[in-house]
User: Fold ANTAR domain-containing protein from Nocardiopsis sediminis.
Amino acid sequence: MQLIDQAPEEPVRPDTAPIRGPRQCDREIELEQENLRLRRQITTLNAALESRADIDRAVGMIMAGARCDAAEAWTRLVAVSNDTNLKVRDICRALTDAGGGDGARPARDLADALRRLGRAPGGALGPG
Assistant:
């Protein structure tokens, strides 16, 4: 028998059901792991956004100096990265920063990468 004044109960979904006993600990562990995963993802995405700006500026510098399009400028950066075993973002940061890098690699490695970039066919940064 159902009372007229009461609304029928909605079924409880498993993902919103109250957690009890040992399952509560398991769920807390799962949430903690998910939290850690998301924090790592945020850190990675922030680093990508920061290096993207350096990369875009460096590509623009190469385009202006070598009078080439963005695809050619990118190809030159990747070639230098492969030849020197330096990350593209480090080469781009060295191109755009007066300091020549972030200290992760010796400044001479970055200087060598920039010299190679300048010696790319047609001179990546223009004549000279």
Remarks:
- The chain has four helices and no strands.
- Residues 103 and 125 are 24 Å apart (CA to CA).
- Residues 98-106, 120-128 have pLDDT under 50 and may be disordered.
- Helices lie at 22-66, 70-84, 88-96, 107-118.
